[in-house]
Amino acid sequence: MAALLVHEDGRYVMQLRDSKAGNLLSGSLGCFGGAVEAGETPVDALRRELREEYQFDLPGASRFTQFDFDFSPLGYSKVYRNLLRSEGA
Questions:
Q1: Looking at the whole model, is its pTM more than 0.90?
Q2: 15 near 31, Cβ under 8 Å?
Q3: How far apart are CA 49 and CA 58, in angstroms?
Q4: Which helix (H) or strand (E) holds 76?
Q5: What is the mean pLDDT of the chain?
Q6: 3-state secondary structure (DSSP) of residue 56
Q7: CA–CA gap between residue 14 and residue 54 (Å, rounded)
């Protein structure tokens, strides 16, 4: 799952991914987010990831859409990302 964060002035807040060997899309800009752990809902996972990566507490969110990615030509697996939106937005 991933969060599309929009600053109050309309600019997007992006995450610069670590430039470490083995990191998928290392050194690129992307949305905050990550994997859903066992027993978590996508919203719970997004709240956890935003606290860990951005020190942000998400009041509530709901599923907006899903993206599917096929990274197999790069030696990675196929993955999907749920894009969630803040409730009340």
A1: no
A2: yes
A3: 10
A4: none
A5: 84
A6: coil
A7: 10
- Contact by Cβ (8 Å): 1, 82: yes
pLDDT exceeding 70 applies to what percent of the chain?
A: 96
Q: Which helix (H) or strand (E) holds 87?
A: none
Q: Which of 67, 1, 65, 78 is nearest to 33 (CA)?
A: 1
Q: Where are the domains of the chain?
A: 2-86
Confirm if 9 and 44 have CB atoms less than 8 A apart.
Answer: no
**DSSP assignment letter at 51:** H
Chain centre to alpha carbon of residue 42: 10
Q: What is the pLDDT of residues 55-81, one digit of tens each?
A: 888 887 887 888 898 989 988 888 888
Give residue 18's pLDDT.
81
CATH class of the structural domain 2-86: alpha beta
**Measured distance CA(38)–CA(24) in Å, rounded:** 21
78 forms beta bridges with 70
